[in-house]
Amino acid sequence: MQIDDIPDMATLRAHIDAVDEQLVALLAQRHALIARAAQIKQQIGLPARIDERVEEVVANAGRHAASHGLDRALIENIWRQLVEAAIAQEDRHLNGDRP
């Protein structure tokens, strides 16, 4: 079904809800990858925050956003929040507090 073929708000909302579920599943996958990153960082003695990597991840998200016609600044802002949450997750692991 094409987006323009969605006939009503109920159907549109169902599609949005399905996309949201997919986004949450992807965030859960990212969370698992961050947990593994924390394990590896602990083994090799890296800190949770690596500023160069933060900027690289944010820039990548901005570039992807622009290529999809999205507001680059908005996506970069969202990604900064996402990265900060990931750093906090890694910090908890590195400090021995594993929720």
From TrEMBL:
Gene3D superfamilies: Chorismate mutase
Pfam families in UniProt: CM_2
Keyword Heme: no
Chorismate mutase domain sequence ranges: 3-94
Presence of keyword Nucleotide-binding: no
Top EC category: isomerase
PANTHER family named among the record's database cross-references: CHORISMATE MUTASE
Name of the protein this chain belongs to: chorismate mutase
Taxonomic source organism: Paracoccus fontiphilus
